[in-house]
Amino acid sequence: MMGSTPSVPRVWRERIIKYRLIGSRCTNCGKISYPPRKACPRCGSVNLEKISLPKRGKVLSYTVIRAP
Is residue 39 in some structural domain? Predict the structure, then answer.
């Protein structure tokens, strides 16, 4: 059985998500969220803009999932 190959338009559309950290910033209160949201978790506004997040940062937590 052969694996499916993603279509060129899909790869092109998803390339920014795979190779850059894109978040959202609320234009009302300034809250930055990752992953991008449709509504601000702080004030509930839907006035959000997409932003490129820095390439470097600090890991605050992580999860290891082990499956048999």
Answer: yes
Residue tagged 């506004």 (tokens): 45
Q: Is residue 13 part of a domain?
A: no
User: CA torsion sign, 3 to 66 to 19 to 29?
Assistant: positive
Helices within 1-68 (DSSP H only): 8-19
CA–CA gap between residue 28 and residue 21 (Å, rounded) = 22
- Written as six digits, the tokens of 3 are 């694996």
- Asked if residue 26 has pLDDT above 70, the reply is yes
Calculate mean pLDDT across residues 19-30: 92
Domain contains 65: no
pLDDT greater than 60 at residue 21: yes
